[in-house]
Amino acid sequence: MKKILELKNIHKSFPGVLALQGVDFSLNEGEIHALMGENGAGKSTLIKVLTGVYTKDEGEIILDGNEVHIKSPQDAQRMGISTVYQEITLCPNLSVAENMYIGRNEELIQNWKKMNEGAEKILQSLDIPAKATQQLASCSIAVQQMVAIARAVDMECKVLILDEPTSSLDEQEVEKLFKLMRDLKQRGVGIIFVTHFLDQVYEVCDKITVLRDGKLVGEYAIADLPRVELVSKMLGKELDDLSDIKDKETKDEKKDDSEVLFETSGLASDQGIKPFDFYIKKGEVNGFTGLLGSGRSECVRAIFGADKVISGTVRKNGTEIKINKPIDAMKNGIAYLPEDRKIDGIIGDLSVKDNIILALQVMKGFFKPFTKAEAYKFADEYIKLLSIKTASADTPIKSLSGGNQQKCIIARWLLTHPEYLILDEPTRGIDVGTKVDIQKLVLKLASEGMSITFISSETDEMLRTCSRLVVMRDRKVVGELTGDELNQTMIMNTIAGGENDAEK
Amino acid sequence: MMQKNKFQISNIFRNQIFIPLAALILLALFNLIMDPSFFKITMGQNAAGNPVLSGYLITILDYGSELAILAIGMTLVTAASGGQDISVGAGIAITGSVILRMLCGRNSRPDELQMPIICAFLIAVLAGMLAGAFNGLLVSWFKIQPMVATLILFTAGRSIAAWINNNELPIVSEPSFGYYGNFIPGIPIPTPFFIAVAVMIVTALLLKFTNLGLYVQAVGINAKSSRLNGLNPTFIKFLTFVLLGVCVAVAGLIKVSRLSTINYSVVAKDIEMDAILAVALGGNSLSGGKFNMTASIIGAYVIQFLTTTLYKFNVKSTALPAYKAIVVILLVVFSAPVVREFISTKWKQLRSTDKIAKEVA
């Protein structure tokens, strides 16, 4: 097979970050090649270097045997490298044909008839169920995605990059997309497929390249890389040195006899998670684990009422409760620290004080504001308790460091004295010292009887804190690990699924 | 809103109230130099033979007050929704028309009032809230951009106002109706000022004894995060529009009381722009978030100060907006956070070089 694209020793750095360090990558004609890695592994940086959004610091890009310099996305397109992004980047209010030809006509006058005929022909040849004159917005997301691919294909692309094209599609739509990908493969197009879904990789890809922390881990043929090894390579834990990090065994034993505090059955939200059952006992720390996009956050958001719940029930101490919106959950003693601190957590321009008292204030009610003295008392108490580094309680929260912002949000929820605290990635993007502080705090709160769900991308952290782990894959709960099963190997096996592969 | 920390001159520049106050002082100085008679206040008698104060300052106090009332509501709307209501002028026409309809009934020249003025006013408040609720619903529920949503009433409002009175122009002959927009016998200060003070006190109490300020700012800064803290951003945005509706009704009462009648196409024309400018001049971000009510209120009087100054210098009413625009550009640029930060740093540098110079000496 002929190599159509080769990247050699690519380096790219941003101020303070080495995003790519000597990454190699190669793509053959008629090959579907998965690019895998956890968040921050450098996948998107590599894609952006390849499509001319970023320029590389060092390294070579060889396309069809010639070295090329890609300076802009237009350059990349002209050379035959097309990209379809996760979010549709077409114009929904234009017709399918217009979307396929927009920006490509060099002449002054547009021949509409010719354009529509051309579009129709491509749609038919790729078996895409859309009409050329149909408005794009009236097509399903999958079809829109396919139109984007059709546009790319028609521009005589040799390399097609699909950046998480399946994340908003349902199973049947994914199937259609895969069929299209296989068709293109037959025609000799090289496809780079970026996704978080392991099943999809094993269904459609020929090769896998794994990146981690901006470095190349390796390139593997799909048959040579069992799922569990793929996961271990992505997470950076070799199977051999996964000696159990088990510590005090007392941790889960004494919790067994305490009663179940919250329990869900068949809970599902409009964010595409499969209905799941879940419970948490008093004083227990448990966690949701799984790769990015596996539905960890969506599960806890459903419990908190942050997303629209479409089915299932939540029971507290055995009696059913209604949670339609966050305030319902808060009144039932649930607190939720969201995954994305900047978008969902902080109220940037408000002071540290206002950010800390907000949740409790909302619970107390519109007509009962805290007096200034009370508010400052609360704020100062928690600033001291969590050692939040801030100039004063009146400093806008946005001028604090990430770790201290996170502490403020934790303070906000601790102030409501919840029975059940959900921490969704509380340690992401904050310094090591604060991370340890937060882990210690979690264990301390649990020993005082608070139930806590702790979600983290770092398995070590979860193993240190949780006594029970719910494992998710592709938006389904696929397993639950307790006691002796709590070790890296088991977690990876369960995340990877496909037990037969794992035993190889 | 001064903080507890040490008083420093450089902090004044950062304080939000600085800009409208500086503009006020600048305008006052300009007038003082050009023609000190601007500040002359004389005691005279009005047509009814009551003692009244007159002069440019009194005019500012009078007309600035209706603007201040609108600026209060506009500040809340701006903070919560990150957009502005451009239908307040049309809203004044509607609420004013409702008051006249209630007072006059079917007969447009009644000999006596059909109901007490307070009742007519309360019904107008309901009408104002209804108009506000309509705007609020479009903005909060249907997520239409505020300017576009309020464009509907901006366009249709004056026709609705005319329709309420069958396109007639009712005239209220009862002299006590004129008190609200002019003078109460025996009190030489224009009544709108007292009404504005009352609205300000109610607003201050509302901000002190409820969480309105905190909620509105939280929603304006980060609606998503506010929702996760148990707030209902949709309702809070809606609420601010309803509150603005109340302010509009109060301004409507003043407007129709001034003349005891109404001119549907002219009453409170372009007042929405002045109200929005008052908010901007107060240093409040027009894209929502934190707000400072005091600054907006001062902003309203400054805008009126400017208008009156221009009238005083015989600027033709057609040319007025152009002059206003120039001054407003300057004011708004100077109230931009970037510029204020720059001035503040420059000032600090100046002081430190000053100090060094002294030490060297």
What share of the residues of chain A lie within helices? 25-40%
**Secondary-structure-derived class of chain A:** alpha/beta
Side-by-side strand order of the widest sheet of chain A: 6-7-8-3-9-10
- Helix residue percentage of chain B: 55-70%
CATH superfamily of the largest domain in chain A: P-loop containing nucleotide triphosphate hydrolases
- The count of β-strands of chain A is 20
Element-by-element helix/strand order of chain B: HHEEHHHHHHHHHHHH
User: What average pLDDT do the residues of chain A reach?
Assistant: 85
| Main sheet characteristics of chain A | 6 strands, mixed
Structural overview:
The complex is a heterodimer of chains A (504) and B (361). With 504 residues, chain A is of the alpha/beta class. Helices cover 36% and strands 24% of the residues of chain A. Chain A has 19 helices and 20 strands. In chain A, α8 packs across α18. Chain A is globular and about 70 Å long. Chain B has a single domain, classed as ABC transporter involved in vitamin B12 uptake, BtuC. Chain B is built from 14 helices and 2 strands; from the N terminus they run ααββαααααααααααα. In chain B, strands 1-2 form a two-stranded antiparallel ribbon. Chains A and B meet through α11, α12 and α13 of A and α8 and α9 of B.
